[in-house]
């Protein structure tokens, strides 16, 4: 879920026993495989401030998540979506959205688009991409995605809805640590655990850096730009589904639960992200769509999960771990459409 060419990351977890530890070793392999499968090849960077929009910088150089589809209609597209792999979807079949930004054809935003009659038309413009961030370059940022949408003519007076889902992939507190680092070196590290001391050891993002103010500051430039050029649109921050059921980080492997017994850093990250998105939405005057609350009983090791495990029969053996499974995409589509 990162740009090709970055140094590979390794986990310090060790497999010394059977049971949960060996299952977490399997998670390590699966996460590493998933990461190499979904690396954005392009390096999109942002620069420049249009003189007529004081706080809006939406100029991209290089290439990024440019989906090969028709230019938006004059006046903008009705539904515009920007986000990371949770929005892009990981269930099969995957389609190439351009520059190796793969997306699931049944991702929840495509289901929303079908419901309102704009799917596979210029009135649906999606730039979601695996590994996308709010503002952690060189990985694709929210400003980069807004620039690609600008180039398509996506924003205008006709634009009705703009959905944004991003934040977990960003570097919070530790400038060299992103979500993949946290997953490999903390969440699945049984030997050292994923307590808050992992932050100081450089193995995890700092959940205490994930605040409403910090989130708003990172998203403000793109939001201001969208408000200016799509004045009639309702902008929504889409939250993330439940990953840590009852504040326990657990992933299903072949139908068997595998838990991280010391998981304060990762569970606090998920919890703080929810409140940061909600608070930032209020600060920036946009809508917040809560997915965590309605999915509280549908985490990774529940009887009816909305997120994928590894070869998990409850998810139809579909998807990348801790991303929406087919049921999750379907249910989330309904929640998003009802609240956007």
Overall description:
The strands form 4 sheets. A 5-stranded parallel β-sheet has the order 6-3-7-8-12, sandwiched between helices. Strands 9-10-11 form a 3-stranded antiparallel β-sheet. It has 340 residues and is of the alpha/beta class. Residues 1-68 have low confidence and may be disordered. The protein is globular and about 55 Å long. Helix 3 (108-115) packs across helix 9. A hairpin with a 5-residue loop joins strand 4 and strand 5 (102-104). The chain has 9 helices and 12 strands. The longest helix is centred in the C-terminal third of the chain and has 21 residues, at 264-284.
Shape: globular
Secondary-structure-based class equals alpha/beta
Largest sheet, in brief, is: 5 strands, parallel
Q: Helical content, roughly?
A: 25-40%
Tell me the β content: 5-15%
Please provide the count of β strands.
Answer: 12
- Helix and strand element order: HEEEHEEHEHEHHHEEEEHEH
* Distance from first to last alpha carbon: 27 Å
Q: Outline the low-pLDDT stretches.
A: 1-68
Rg, alpha carbons:
19 Å
State the helix count.
Answer: 9
Mean pLDDT, to the nearest integer, reads 83
């Amino acid at each position: 879920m990162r740009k090709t060419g970055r140094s590979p990351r390794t986990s310090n977890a060790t497999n010394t026993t059977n049971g949960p530890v060996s299952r977490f070793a399997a998670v390590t392999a699966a996460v590493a495989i998933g990461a190499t499968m979904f690396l954005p090849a392009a390096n999109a960077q942002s620069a420049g401030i249009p003189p007529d929009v004081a706080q809006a910088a939406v100029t991209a150089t290089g290439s990024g998540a440019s989906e090969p589809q028709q230019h938006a209609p004059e006046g903008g597209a009705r539904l515009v979506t920007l986000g990371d792999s949770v929005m892009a979807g990981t269930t099969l079949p995957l389609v190439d959205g351009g520059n190796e930004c793969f997306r699931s054809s049944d991702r929840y935003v495509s289901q929303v688009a079908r419901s309102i009659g704009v799917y596979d038309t210029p009135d649906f413009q999606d730039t979601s991409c695996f590994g996308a961030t709010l503002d952690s370059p060189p990985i694709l940022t929210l400003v980069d995605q807004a620039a690609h949408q600008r180039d398509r003519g996506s924003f205008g007076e006709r634009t009705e809805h703009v959905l944004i889902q991003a934040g977990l992939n960003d570097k919070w507190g530790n400038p060299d640590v992103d979500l993949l680092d946290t997953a490999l070196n903390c969440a699945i590290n049984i030997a050292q655990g994923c307590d808050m001391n992992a932050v100081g050891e450089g193995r995890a993002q700092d959940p205490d850096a994930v605040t409403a103010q910090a989130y708003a500051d990172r998203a403000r430039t793109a939001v201001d730009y969208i408000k200016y050029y799509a004045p009639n649109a309702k902008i929504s921050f889409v939250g993330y589904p439940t990953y840590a059921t009852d504040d326990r980080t657990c992933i299903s492997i072949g139908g068997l639960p595998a838990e991280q017994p010391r998981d304060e850093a990762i569970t606090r990250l998920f919890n703080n992200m929810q409140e940061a998105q909600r608070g930032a939405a209020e600060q920036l005057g946009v809508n917040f769509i809560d997915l965590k609350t309605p999915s509280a009983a549908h985490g990774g090791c529940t009887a009816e999960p909305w997120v994928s495990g590894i070869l998990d029969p409850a998810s139809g053996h579909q998807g990348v771990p801790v991303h929406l499974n087919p049921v999750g995409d379907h249910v989330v589509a309904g929640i998003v459409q009802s609240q956007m």
